[in-house]
Amino acid sequence: MFERFQEFFQNLTSDNTKKGFAPDDPRIAVAALCMQVMEADGQVTDSETKRLRKLLKDQYGLDRKQLDALMAAGQEAESDAVDYYRFTSDLKRHLNTEQRLELIGVLWDIVYADGERSEMEDDAIWRIAELLGVSARERIQKRQEAARRVTDTEVVQDDAD
């Protein structure tokens, strides 16, 4: 699972060698969209926040200070945004079709981090997928893959107990 995310995030920033986060840095857009999806159901759980922090840290190779800066920049951008278009239009320019599909997969993994999926989270990802040009079939496929990963992880954890 993490290899897939690592490749996605590395491709996203392959041309970006800066350590700082410029306002148009696609990593901020990714973080902000993840935060918007996390907040869609009105509850941001520790497990969702931990999952997002781990994904961003591991995939972008950030130290704690850089991760905190990215999280703060993403939160600020998310707070200033009135809709998803601000982020999806930028990411659509930076990401190819496969990377956009992987982003939808990342969003589903964040949704399932707390073990639950809400109607509001479904709606948020549906809207984001539409703006990114990801079909309903592909979006549902990514949702099913994320749900299977959660189920597989639970089975492995149960076997370890």
From TrEMBL:
Alphabetized SUPFAM superfamilies for the sequence: TerB-like
Domain of life: Bacteria
A Pfam family reported for this protein in Swiss-Prot or TrEMBL: TerB
InterPro entries: DjlA_N (IPR007791), TerB-like (IPR029024)
Domain Co-chaperone DjlA N-terminal: 27-144
Name under which the protein is recorded: Co-chaperone DjlA N-terminal domain-containing protein
Species name: Rhizobium grahamii CCGE 502
Classification of source organism: Bacteria, Pseudomonadati, Pseudomonadota, Alphaproteobacteria, Hyphomicrobiales
